[in-house]
Amino acid sequence: MSELQPTEIAISINGTTVSVxxxxxxxxxxxxxxxxxPTLCWASNLTPVNACRLCVVEMEGSRNLVPACSRECEQGSxxxxxxxxxxxxxxxxxxxxxxxxxxxxxxxxxEFIVRYEADSSxxxxxxxxxxxxxxxxxxxxxxxxxxxxxxxxxxACGDDAQFTFAISMAGRGxxxxxxxxxxxxLPESACVYCGNCVGVCPTNALQFKKEFDLRQAAxxxxxxxxxxxxxxxxxxxxxxxxLHTQDNExxxxxxxxxxxxxxxHLCVKGRFGWQYVQPPTRRPxxxxxxx
Amino acid sequence: MFGAGGGxxxxxxxxxxxxxxxxxxxxxxxxxxxFHHVLKGLKSGAKMHAVDPRRTASARFADAWLxxxxxxxxxxxxxxAREIIAADLHDRKFIDxxxxxxxxxxxxVQTYTLEYASSVTGVPADAIQELxxxxxxxxxxxxxxxxxxxxxxxxxxxxxxxxxLALLTGHVGRWGSGLVPLRGQNNVQGGGDMGALPNKLxxxxxxxxxxxxxxxxxxxxxxxxxxxxxxLTLMFEAMATGTLKGLYVIGExxxxxxxxxxxxxxxxxxxxxxxxxxxxxxxxxxxxxxxLPATVGWAESEGTVTSSExxxxxxxxxVEAPAGTRDDHTIIGExxxxxxxxxxxxxxEALWDELRSLSPMHSGxxxxxxxxxxxxxxxxxxxxxxxxxFLHGWLWEDDLGGKERAxxxxxxxxxxxxxxxxxxxxRLTTGRALDSYNTGVQSRGYPSPIRSxxxxxxxHLDAASLNLAQxxxxxxxxxxxxxxxEVDIKTxxxxxLAFTTFHFPELIDLNLLTNDEWDPKxxxxxxxxxxxxxxxxxxxxxxx
Lengths: 291, 544
Prior knowledge:
The complex is a heterodimer. Chain A has helices at 26-32, 84-100, 107-115, 152-157, 196-200, 209-216, 268-272; strands spanning 8-13, 16-21, 56-59, 66-67, 78-80, 140-142, 167-170, 177-180, 206-208, 225-231, 240-246, 249-254, 288-289.
């Protein structure tokens, strides 16, 4: 039986000793001890790709900062999650992203920018992504000027969830973009419109069309919005849906990443098939006595 | 199975199984998020064999695709069983301890040799053999099926033939091994759980069980009829003979969805009274004498639904319903009061608590616990019970607790009721597309970019012999009717097989073609096997 028992490992995080099972990442260990480490490309329902480096921490004895999201704890490690070196590193990552991309619709990154005093104005004439927003259907839009190339959408479309592989990174250097094969318009690509890429996007580069339309029309009113958990009305799998509504209209549908049925992922019907609930399809009615 | 109306396993189990047998199911399109669990299993190294007449989007992920002839599933399952026994791969200890009728079963399947099954099913003998060995040798194996198994005139026998395989190998009643019928419709499981079956009270208690029925009578304040009612298909037969004169339809659209639908429409039209309670004025509602506008259950009202893993989950109102609509339970309650019952106008939670007091398998599922646990899986008999991830664990107990051992079933290959003929030489089968749902009442409300409409998928070999071009409009006829539809020519589809979805009945009335021969044990019609003829519309004119 002993080989089935996970080995306990003790590490020090910011001076506090934390005991965890072997195989636990530094990020998980820190969170279990109440220590928050900022992340961008990490998500609980995706495999770490180590793309953004925002979660790096200092591990004594290691020359380089290590990514907390993927690095497993090692016995006796001494970790510092907010050292001066770590903070400077995060500040600069955030500044680089902020000079390149429009991060205005990412609440989380805006918080990190404040926390790490990132100041993108100290860079003169930075290169910027200026891609025009791609609107190719009525379900979601792709605003790649907001894309930080975190890989989350690619992972969700690929073997972390959907196994459709409609998108990947294309191009090199500054011209790297998330792209369909040969940059084919989405409706003609392999895309099956599950919207799982939109569900994991941290910067609103991928955005549900209804939300996009509301923002464009200057009708985006967060204080009039709420989220309600319910179950999808289509097949019998029973996916939990979070219906995001503004006033009395649904504008997007997501699913909680920590739910055992969906792991945060949906199909095209669950994600977009709700429109029959509201106008113009649904109209006031009254009992109809036709005879 | 074995007495309980639900899948035996949790979704998570298929992630951990090492062999997955997908039989008559295109889960990739019809149950996409369940298929995510399958894909996790495949990513971890599980093998999957897919049994389906078509090389579906699901079958493309399989290690082996067994392209079976429509309606020959029992021949294949019995041959798999025979091979498992012949190769001595069956679990004798489990069979002796937990099952009954093995000797008769072993004798019964003797005639289902690999050669015979191969000739009937069209599946190569070595593929049948490999399936048998892989399934039997797996440490954890799941059999998943949907309507490809059940929508036949002998659908129940089809299911039993798959259950035999699980009994033979002990692939049931333990974590990772099980039998999983994926439910095609939201809360079809919950409908059965709640007693929306002709012979069951809530919690699968028999109408004919006097003491069970008495408890319900006491709770409801009315004497309940001890006679089992009619299932859907028998209702239509009773309409035809004139013994059933009034019908109250809630959230169904039989005027579009039934097989041989022109016959159905006539029966509905001839009723003395048709009441339809729905969120839309469906084709069925258009035929009704009274239409009761309902709210949308999952977005405009409170309640519960049950999923394919027997998980009872809460639905909640997110938006206000249009004026003039009412919740289903409110409408039913008021109708009951008009009929003289003194039912109080209860909240959904109060109704649920009443159900919990009457259905032992739901007793432990308070609203509070359902919220805290993201739903609970039945049976959940008390407030301390964690719910039941898999069923029939008792099969593996040393003491079976007085339960009857699980019986093998002797079932035989029959094939589809409607034989192919010179007049109707092509086999038509039907199914769902990823972005659409049943008669389209809900799914046509959103602008799907991947929607292609209903098309008749045919083999390139048939297209060549009929001189048809891609997208060409043809006339398709069965003994019951005919429609015009575009062909979609497939290079990986068997000759003699045609497939179509049925999501746009307002454009193409495909259920004019389908066969309403039905299974006397389930009442389900044989949607999956009609005989058709394809005629070129105007020969020579439509070359593209």
